[in-house]
Amino acid sequence: MILHDSGASHALGIRLAALVQPGDVITLEGSLGAGKTSIARGLLAALGLAGEAPSPSFAIVQPYAPPEVRLPVLHIDLYRIDDPDEMEELGLDDAASDSLLIVEWPERAPGYWPEALALTLQIMPDGARALTARVPAAWRARWHQI
């Protein structure tokens, strides 16, 4: 899939929001500026978040809960994680079953979310983004609605 600009990335997030359920994990991989946060912000806005979602780069985990959003969400940015062993300290396992997890920089914790909808963004020479998806079984029927 080609995302021609940040508006297209934001719109993809909006389409994803219509399909997410508690317990889902969406990982967003790509270089700095590839559009990971644009997708996350579109998703969060469509789930009801008023205003622009801050990047969780410094907090690492930014939680959102109803009524602020339709379902509990953890927006996670692993850019500052240096060792996958640090993941245990974040306490994400407890929230994973009843929250949506949106994970930027998942390559910092390889293998941590094997059943995630894994989206990878690559910046093309013309500035567009090429999006590839690894679609797990739980997402196959839903992904066709994107």
Characterise this structure.
There is one protein chain. The chain has 146 residues and is an alpha/beta fold. It has one domain: Rossmann fold, CATH 3.40.50. It is built from 5 helices and 7 strands, in the order E-H-E-H-E-E-H-H-E-E-E-H. The chain has a 7-stranded mixed sheet. A hairpin with an 8-residue loop joins strand 3 and strand 4. The longest helix has 12 residues. The model has no long low-confidence stretch (mean pLDDT 88).
Key structural traits:
single chain, 146 residues, alpha/beta, Rossmann fold, 7-stranded mixed β-sheet, 24% helix, globular
The CATH homologous superfamily is named P-loop containing nucleotide triphosphate hydrolases
Helix share bin: 10-25%
Query: What is the N-to-C order of secondary-structure elements (H for helix, E for strand)?
Result: EHEHEEHHEEEH
Say what the CATH topology is. Rossmann fold
**The biggest beta sheet, please?**
7 strands, mixed
Detail the poorly predicted runs: none
Strand order within the widest sheet? 1-7-6-2-5-4-3
The tally of helices reads 5
Q: What is the CATH class? A: Alpha Beta
- Judged by helices, strands and strand pairing, the structural class is alpha/beta
Strand content: 15-25%
Radius of gyration in whole Å, from Cα?
Answer: 14 Å
Query: What do the pLDDT scores average to?
Result: 88
Through-space gap between termini: 10 Å
